[in-house]
């Protein structure tokens, strides 16, 4: 079983739709949970990060973590064509000091149609 | 502040050759991590360098190696190239390491092995 599983999609939605992106994980040592957005021909950029179970909101984006179920989600409200990108979940394991290691999901390709 | 730069952006090599990729981190960042991104495997961690020392290493064969210079610039080398090494190679820099909110990715080097 892979440490991080993410539905690869692709996902195609109309403009204004609510989008739900999800990842599951198996490693209980993961402490930080992140979502990255990657536009075509670009490197990933950090969208949001969370530490504890619960919800974190930033504008149209909400990150949700359920540590008991080992499940994280990213919700996008009022989706826009500019949200079209690949979304990657990532999880961080801490090894002491400033030593972390990131593990990524494979990414979900999202297309928002005008 | 300039972002992470990677050179070259595109590279075509043949099997058996070797290749060196370069990454210049954001000024002041001491940690550089390298990742391989493919459609099948997603984003996979290669290694991380911090203050010229390899601090973390992923599960890649010894053909993949790297180094970091005193100015924090990093190079990654792949020897005896195989067709399966065709991928987008990304580097990410951070102040201290692979923590949750500090990594900034470059645009990547697209390597094609023929």
Described by the principal axes of the CA atoms, the overall outline of chain B is globular
Q: What is the gyration radius of chain B calculated from CA atoms?
A: 13 Å
SSE order of chain A: EEEEEEEEEEE
Please trace the helix and strand order of chain B, writing H or E for each element.
EEEEEEEEEEE
**What class, by secondary structure content of chain B?**
mainly beta
Oligomer state of the chains in this structure? heterodimer
Summed over residues and divided by their number, the pLDDT of chain B gives a mean of 92
Instruction: Provide the low-confidence segments of chain B as ranges.
Output: none
| Large-scale geometry of chain A | globular
What is the number of E strands of chain B?
A: 11
- Give the mean pLDDT of chain A: 91
Secondary-structure-derived class of chain A = mainly beta
Largest binding interface between chains: A-B, 24 and 25 residues
Helicity level of chain B, as a percent range? under 10%
- Separation, N- and C-terminal Cα atoms of chain B: 37 Å
Strand content of chain B: over 45%
- Terminus-to-terminus distance of chain A: 38 Å
